[in-house]
Every structure is written in structure tokens, then in C-alpha cells.
Amino acid sequence: MDFMTALPTILKAMTMGAVPILLAALGEVFSERAGLVNIGLEGVMAIGAFVGFAVGKMTGNLWVGLLAGMAAGVLVNMLYAFCTVTLCADQVVTGMAINILAPAIALFGYNLFVGSNSANATGAQMPSIAIPGLSDIPFIGNAFFNQTLLAYLAFILVPLVRYFFKHFRAGLSFRSVGENPHAAETLGINVVRMKYVACIVCGLLTAAGGAFLTLCYTPIYTDGIVMGRGFIALATVIFGRWTALGVLGASLLFGFFDGLNVALQAQFQAAPVMFFKMIPYIFTIIALIFFGSKHAGPKANGQPYFREQR
Amino acid sequence: MAKKALSPEERSEKRMMILTPIVAVLLALIIGAIIIACLGKNPFEGYAAMIQGSLGDGAKLSKTLERACPLIFTGLCAAFAYKCGVFNLGGEGQFIMGGCATATCVLGLGLEGPAGLALGLLAGIVAGAIWGLLPGIMKITRGLNEMITTIMLNYVAMYFMEYIFKNVYSDNGLPKTVAIPQSARLPEVLGTHVGVILAIVLGIFTWYVIFRTSFGFKIRAVGMNPIASKVNGFPVRRLVLLAFVLSGAIAGLGGAVELLGKTPYRLADGFGSGFGFDGVAIALIAQLNPIAAIFVAFFFGVLSTGGTMMQSVIGVPTAIVEIIRGLIIIFAVAGMAAVKLPKIKAYVAARLDARAKKAEVNA
Amino acid sequence: MSEIKKSLSAAMLDRRQAIFLGLGSMGALALAGCGGSGSSSSSSDSSSSSSSSEQSSYKVAMIMSGIITDGGWDQGHYESLKRALDSHPKWEMLEPKENTADADAATAAQTYVDQDVDLIIGNGNQFASDWAEVVADAADSHPKVHFLITNTDPTTEMTDYETLDPVETVLPDFKQTGALAGVVAGLMTKTKSIGFIGGMKLPSTLTKYSAYLAAAQKIDPSIQGQYNFEAGFTDASLGTNLTQQWIASNNVDVMWGDASAVDNGARQALEAAGADTHFDIAQPIDIVGDNQPTVVTSTVTDWMIGQAMDEIESGSFGGGKAITGNMDNGGISLGKFSDKVSKDVQDKINEYADQIKAGTFITDDEVSAIQKSL
């Protein structure tokens, strides 16, 4: 394989593939910073992808589709919030249940929406906007500066989230909720409300990541379109050490390895390509082994919070 | 161990914990019925078809048991790990690797007869255990969250299985392995393969190990409070690692049984798909009780086989059965958490008090 | 420590009761199983006497792994079924069974057997190995039920079957399909580089690609082919990335897809590279005009369900025969052309298509030479 010829396309696949993971992972950063491990990203993304697709198709306006998808994502994630925050249910199992329920709802909706009318099966796509000048840079130009608006927004979100957690009072409160909710409560922070807010933000961003798949990547919805990206997003949060910049780096790296997988598949056609397909997942494990840390991460992450308990 | 009479509060909490999953199932079925009715179909006819299609006669029942069999294994896998505080979400990968090892053993070595069967099962156990050991090592040496690593390993296992059935033991170039020879398959008893009985026995055995042996006691202690266990001199790291290995072995055995016991006796696309996550749900609805897990897994089997029947008889989308299943899990988890909430507990206690007082007054 | 012990032992009390309960009901279930299986086999024999030729109405059901609007495999089957129903007024379709997981494939067939459906169609050879038991049982207890499994070679893929009496398969002549696509690709490509994405490495997939490349090379021996046979049927983004990579590295300008949703992704990449110079050939349904700027034509497969219905009505269905679909009987055809295909090229394609139909365009040796090299 001529690696240099393949590289620009790998980089293009990297930035495209990174966006949905980045959005979901940023959502998960909010969630985990508030002490909620949401393993249901996969399901929320599926809902976002389907509702974004269906509403975008119905209204003919993809941005309305995106907003509707995000709203649906929040709705589903509220189910998670209610179970884990109000009822203090096990976060992992609730997330798993979302992963079973939400794609089923999306598929059911798809059945109703498309039915036997295959004209409804293909939607529209957001156009790519090439930034003049920058998009002509060799190798990286097309990859980074010829994207859909939603992708640009996702990347712009990274410094904003970083700034929020570093310098905003609300961001600091978030972190204290995830580190030590009881101490946060004594400081006058409404822990329960904070956790709900985290779930709303998480639902919004994760569903936007899902909607990216149907509005910017491919014009169709299929059952299983998320393809484990929600789980990858979970891994990138750990790999990125719960920071916006870290998550950006991790999702770009994952995108790169996924692009490499496709490039290898494209060029070594007679090889057993399933080994190429393993690359992104094995890479994630190796990355975690080398860079994942025992001690990083919010201390009260994953634990239920009983207000009465002291 | 000394026994102690249960206080009324404890007894009522127990009753609530058994009642909650049942209420969850009923609620989910009611919502399912509403959806079906909204589609203009008859939900009662649908549910009748579901029961008829899964339990209607002996052949159906045995199919349902065979459908539930792998779920019993993955459910036990999850329950055992969780008892030790290990969130093993890799049941699917361990199940698949078990199947791969069994296929390799039987087809690769050309084994037939009971030797093939026995070695096949053993290979499945070992492969599952190894696939469980990997995230265990990553957890105790590097502190990696096992939820992530086990899920990643599920994907690796899935693609590895593709390699096995497409490139190594492919049947005439088709994307499936050649069938396991007749003589190496699990024998049939009462219309189902013997693996179902194996699964049930394993469930009871797991229950015994967890609740009646000192090893099980240590496992539970680590799961409840690893720091206190460490203070008490338990080898916490070794116990955690063992929990990974044993739960992986259970899932791996499940994969071996599925391959050796159930038509088409081949690895192919979709083998084990979704069983791992179903197992997690089963374990949690069963409140980590291995014996209860058998029943919950059976119920999931009924939903699968009966759901297919319902779907075809009244003509509703397959997704409805999935929605019902998801709702059952949500309701059960939420309900059981709610029962444990201090507020609810206090309310129940107050009710009990009032009733006791009333009884006194009446007396 | 003692705290833990106390709470554990308290929690254990009811478990013992649970185990007895559990064993008891398991035993009861097993007993019910024994009793049930005896009665079921005797009760179902009664329906066997009616002769199929006197029937006035028939039922047909279709079982698929995907959905009827997947834009590919299952939609192609569904549309074939609807065409057959239009010409067979005695037949009535039951709700198709979509999204059939591997583990439920046998159960799905069984549910239609129980309803005495006259024809059960399985979309693809993944059902062949799952249905061996169901077919064996149904052959005894439900003689009215017939099975049609598509894309399956009964001589090699049904060796598990005890009986093939109620079974037939459909085996389209995929050399013709591939050759048709290859002719279009060979005449449309400017860069002499064509690509193919298959969802699964089936024998039929390999045949299609080999004939595709052989036919294109017949038109211009310098044409190069790129292929992927493992793309699956759902991951559209893989189709996009793969096609992008081929466009960039290999200058591919014509794609032919055999992977349902993944084909959609490939079209996406072709469109991004310029729909005036990059073309797609669709399969297995005709989608030219459906808002698909890159699609120039489609290779259409009809699954010959009407013929199976005729055979059931006349009582000649079964015995493990394979129904062949080809250009003579309408099983394989080329769809509409888009305006990207000039009149000259259309005439040429039609001329070559007649040669393909007659079997004179490419030889089997040319196809198998390529197939061996894969």
C-alpha cells in the first residue's frame, strides 16, 4: 500500500469518524463529572440518529431534525436520570436497559415511518463547507477544513467545554458533585439538580452524535447503525482522562485507526479483513493499558447518591 | 451459620423484592398491549399466541428451553462476577470464544464421539476463562475499568469468530463452519439437549458455591466491601481475578454447549449475538441469585420464542418484543431500587407499624 | 466484618425456600414437556389428507434477516414476492418476519408451519442450515407446508437435511448478473478502474464479482478491479470510507454493490467525488430516478417466487430442486438507464446483453480463472 496516497483519505475518515464519538464522549464527560457512568450512550445515539433522520426527512430541514433528535435523546436520558438519580438504581444496568430499549424504539419508529414505503428510506445530507484557503492545505486540508457545519460545531465545542469546567463556577460545582457529593451538598450545591442537568447535557450531545450519523455521514437509518460507537465513546472518556481536550485527542486517534482499518481493507483485499476490523478495538485496549490511569476520574463516579446518608 | 428470625420489615422487603420483577413484567406487558392495540391489532390474541408458541406443547417448550439455555449461562456468568463486584459485560465475547475453541477442538483435531464432546466442552471452558482472565489482569495490574475492556474484547471475539468460520473451518467456502459431527453432539433428553440440564445444575451449583461455601463467602465479602475484606486478610486481588476467570469459564461453557447442542451445530454470523447483555439483565432482575437467574432466563426464552410467534400471528413488528424486553429491565431495575430507597422503606415500615397497632387494638 | 456476616446470613434464609420451589416447578415443567410432546405429534396428523391441487386459497410468508426497506437484499425479495402476488390472485401474504436473529430463525419458520402456511420463503442461504430440523418435522406433520430458500445450492448446502421433499431453492444465474454489471462498468469507466463491495463472502458473491470483472475486461483488458467481500449489510459509513479510499488510491470511478445499506455509503462517496464522472450500478432492485444522482442503472434479480407458487398449485413442488433465475425467464434483468448513459452506450449494452443471454459474451473459464485468483 502506498501509505502517502492513502493518508489524506485516512485523515478524512478520521475526522468524519471522530465527530459522533467526540460528541457522545463530551456528553459522557458531563455525566461522569457529575458521578454518573452512563453506559447507555449507544441507545441514546440510536434514538438521536433515527429521530434526526425521520424529522429531517419529514420537515425537509435537517437542523430541525437535529434538534428533534437531541430532544428525543434528552427524553430517553431522562429515563436514565430518573432511575439512577432519583431511584438510585444501578447505573450500569440502567444503561444496559437503555441500550436494549432505545434501539428497539428507534426500530419500531422506523417501521412505522418507512413501512413499505421505500421512498422514505433515504434522507438528505448536510452539505460540506470548504473553508477557502485552509481546505487546500495538503494532507490535512480536506480532512479538517472541508466538513459539515455540525462537525465544525462539534470541534468548536471542545474549547468551550474545557473553559466551562476550568473557569465557570457551574463547571467547578459539577466536578465537586462527581468528586464528593456530600461535601458539595454542604457547600450549598443541589446535587440532585446538578446530576439532572448533567443528564440533559449528556442526552443533548450524545443524541447529536447519533444524528450526525444519519444527517452528515450516510443518508439512511439502519438498525445497528451506531455500531458500538457509544461504547468507544465511553472508552475515549477514560483514555482522555475526563477532559475535553483529552477526549478530542482520543476520538481523533480512534478515528485514525478506524480509517487505517478501512485503508488496509481497501488495499489488502485478499487478506482476512476481520483482523483489520479488530484494529480500532485492540488499539483502544492498548491505549487504555498504557495511558489509562487507576487514579484519574471523579471519585464518586458510578456510585448512587443518597441524600439522607451521611 | 446461625439462623435468625426475620423481622417484619425484612420480610416485607423480601416480599417486595420478589414482587417487583413480577409487577415490572406485568407493567411492560400492559404497555406492550397498548402499543399493539394502537396498531389496530388484538393484544390478547397476541399474548395468547406468545404463550402458545413458547409453552403450547412439549416440542415448543423444549425449543424455549433450548433458547433459554445460553441465557442461563451468560446470566450465571454475570451474576457470579457481580457478586464479587466485577462488572463483566464480556459474557458475549467469552461465550463466542468458548464456541470458537470448541469448534477448533472438535473440527480441527477431527475428534468424534464422547472424546470430542468432552474435549470440546473443556476447550470451551478454558477459552472462556482465558477471555475472562484478560480483562481481569488489566483490572488488577493497570486498574482498567472492566466494563470498557470486556466490551472491546467482545468485538475482538466477534471478528475472531468470523475468521474461524470464514477462513479456517468454512463449509465449502460458505460463511459458516462445517457441522459438528453427529457423534460429538450433546445427547437429547426429553426432547431438549442435555445442556439445558447442565445449565440448571450449574445454576444450583453456583448458588451453592456462592451462598454455602467459605469461598463464596469471601467472594461476596469482596463484592460488598473490598477494603474491609482486605483488612480482614482476604486475598482480594486473587479473588477478583478468580471471579473474572470463573465467570468467563461459565460463559465459555455456554458457548460450547450452544455449539454442541443446538441446530445448526455450526458457528456462523450471529452466534451468541446479544446473549452477553441479556445475561447481565437477567442477573440483575434475578437480584444476583443464580437460581432465580434460571427462571428469569427461562422467561427471556419465552419472550423470544413466543414473541416470534406473536409477531407472525397478529402481524406486528419484531421491535415490539424488544421494547417489551427493554421495559421489563427498566421497570425491574427501577422498581428494585425504589424498594430499597430510605423514603419508601420508612413508608413501608410505618404501614407495618400501623397494621401491627391495629392488630393489637383488635386483639 | 461481623457486620457483613450478619447481613449475609440474614439474606440467606429465604433462598433455601426458593431452591425447593425452583426444583419443584422445574420438575413440573419437565413432566408437562413429556406429556405435551406425545399429544402434539398425534394431533397434527389429521390435517394431512387434503390434496393441494383442490385448494382455492394459499398463504405465503417471508422470513428475512433485515427489513423490507433495506434498499437491497430483503427489499429485492419483498418486491419479487409482491410481483408474484399480483399474478397469483389465489395467494395471500402474511406479515413478513423482519429482523430475524440467527437464534430465532428456526422458531420463526416453526411459527408459520404451525399456521399451515403453504409457502415459507427464507431470504438467503443463512436459513438453509437453521431450518433442517423444522423442515424434517414439518414434512411429517404438516405436508401442506412448503419451503423456498433463496440463493442456496441444494447439493452442497443442504447436506444436513433428512428430507428435501417439501423444499426447493432459488439459484439465479449470477454469472449473467455479474456480466451485465461488468458490461455497464466497462463501458462507463473512464479511468479503467472499477470497484465492488459485497456484504458477505458467499459463493454467489464471488461469482458475481468474477463475472463482473471478466465482462469489463472483455470490453477493455486494461480494466482493474477492486473488491471487498466482507462489508456486512448495515455499516453505511464503511461503504463511504472504502469507496473514498479506492477513489483516492486507485482512481475507481464505477462501483457495483451487493451489500444493501453499505451500497448507500458507497454512493455517498461517489457523489462527493462528482456525480458526473463517478457512477454506481445498483443491485438488486431498480432505483434509477429515486433521487440517486450517481446510479446509472440497476441489475435486477427476481426470485422466481411465481414459479414456486405455480408448482405448489399443480402439486409438483419439492424434492430439493433448484429453480434457476436467468435472463430468459426474467429472473435477471437490467433496470432503467439514467440520463448519464448515452444512447450509443445503451445500444452497446443491449447488444452485449443479448450475447450474455446467449452465453457467448464471456466463457465460464474466464470467470472461474478470476474466481480462482481471489
**pLDDT average of chain A, as an integer?**
90
| Average predicted confidence as pLDDT of chain B | 90
Q: How are the strands ordered across the major sheet of chain B?
A: 1-2
The N- and C-terminal alpha carbons of chain B lie at a distance of 36 Å
The ordered H/E elements of chain A are HHHHEHEHHHHHHH
Q: What is the count of helical runs of chain A?
A: 12
Uncertain runs of chain B with pLDDT below 50, 5 residues or more? none
Report the structural category of chain A. Answer: mainly alpha
Q: Distance N terminus to C terminus of chain A? A: 62 Å
Oligomer: heterotrimer
Q: The CATH topology of chain A is what? A: ABC transporter involved in vitamin B12 uptake, BtuC
The biggest sheet of chain A, with number of strands, parallel, antiparallel or mixed sense and barrel status, is: 2 strands, antiparallel
Strand order of the largest sheet of chain A: 1-2
Form type of chain B: globular
Q: Please state the structural category of chain B.
A: mainly alpha
Put simply, the count of helices of chain B is: 14
The CATH first-level class of chain A comes to: Mainly Alpha
Strand content of chain B: under 5%
Helix content of chain B: over 70%
Structure summary:
The complex is a heterotrimer of chains A (310), B (363) and C (374). Chain A has 310 residues and is an all-alpha fold.
Secondary structure layout:
The complex is a heterotrimer of chains A (310), B (363) and C (374).
Chain A: H1 3-33, H2 41-59, H3 62-86, H4 91-114, E1 128-130, H5 140-145, E2 146-148, H6 149-167, H7 169-179, H8 181-186, H9 191-217, H10 229-239, H11 244-267, H12 274-291
Helix pairs in contact in A: 1-6, 1-9, 1-10, 1-11, 2-3, 2-4, 2-9, 2-10, 3-4, 3-9, 6-7, 10-11, 10-12, 11-12
Chain B: H1 8-38, H2 43-55, H3 58-83, H4 91-108, H5 113-142, H6 146-168, E1 170-171, E2 174-177, E3 188-189, E4 192-193, H7 195-212, H8 214-224, H9 226-231, H10 236-261, H11 275-285, H12 290-314, H13 319-340, H14 342-362
Antiparallel strand pairs in B: 1-2, 3-4
Helix pairs in contact in B: 1-2, 1-13, 1-14, 2-3, 2-12, 3-7, 3-10, 3-11, 3-12, 4-5, 4-6, 4-10, 4-11, 5-6, 5-10, 7-8, 7-12, 11-12
Chain C: H1 2-43, E1 58-63, H2 73-87, E2 91-93, H3 105-114, E3 119-122, H4 126-130, H5 132-141, E4 146-150, H6 154-157, E5 167-172, H7 174-188, E6 193-198, H8 203-219, E7 224-228, H9 236-250, E8 254-258, H10 261-273, E9 279-282, E10 295-301, H11 305-314, E11 321-325, E12 332-334, H12 343-358, H13 364-373
Parallel strand pairs in C: 1-2, 1-3, 3-4, 4-5, 5-11, 6-7, 6-8, 8-9, 9-10
Antiparallel strand pairs in C: 10-12
Helix pairs in contact in C: 2-11, 7-8, 7-12, 8-13, 9-10
